[in-house]
Amino acid sequence: MSRFLLAVLILACVGSAIGVVHARHRHRLLFVELSRLEKARDELNIEFGRLQLEQATVAESNRIDQVARLRLGMKFPEAGDVVVIRP
């Protein structure tokens, strides 16, 4: 009976050790994945900032163009209105 109990305890100990090794390996894999996703998030945040800046720039130039056309009556010159002066 004691040998049977000893065998069960040894098997339980080995099973527990295998479970710990498996859990630590899974933790490492998930940590690597987390690090990769954080890096991708940071890159996306940088890109988002760039796009916001570009949008603000485009919106500003469009607003200036609109004001110049409506309030000041400005327009692009026609091809015949352009004079090229050569040295």
UniProtKB/TrEMBL annotation:
Which controlled-vocabulary keywords does the entry list?
Cell cycle, Cell division, Cell inner membrane, Cell membrane, Membrane, Transmembrane, Transmembrane helix
Location comes to:
Cell inner membrane; Cell membrane
The source's domain of life comes to Bacteria
Q: What is its main location?
A: membrane
Pfam families xref list: FtsL (PF04999)
**GO BP terms in the entry:** cell division
Return the similarity comment.
Answer: Belongs to the FtsL family.
Descriptive protein name? Cell division protein FtsL
The parts of the chain that form a coiled coil are none
Q: How does it assemble?
A: Part of a complex composed of FtsB, FtsL and FtsQ.
What role is this protein assigned? Essential cell division protein. May link together the upstream cell division proteins, which are predominantly cytoplasmic, with the downstream cell division proteins, which are predominantly periplasmic.
Q: What InterPro entries does the database record attribute to this sequence?
A: Cell_div_FtsL
Q: How does it sit in the membrane?
A: Single-pass type II membrane protein
